[in-house]
Specification:
By secondary structure, the protein is mostly helical. Helices cover about 75% and strands about 0% of the residues. The chain has two domains: about 30 residues; about 50 residues. The protein has five helices and no strands. α1 packs across α2 and α4 runs antiparallel to α5. The protein is elongated, with a radius of gyration of 21 Å.
Length: about 90
Amino acid sequence: MLRRYERRLLEEIERQLCSEDPEFAQRMTHVRPFMKVLGWLTVRRALGIVAAFLALLCVVFNEGTGFVVAGALAAALFMSESWQIQTE
């Protein structure tokens, strides 16, 4: 979280930008829906979606073991979303 001083400073920069170049400011504040999805999509989420899709395919083709494995992988990927790998 930013300190109060830093927030005021950023707000002042934003106001100055809006007054100097309103077209640029409008482009920066308007986010297309596709870009929101790309911002939400991480590698773990993408792998989780693929694993969930594979689990559904296993159900369709009556592969019980594949369903369990792919479902467990998808669940692990979605639950591990908050885990962080720290490198030194």
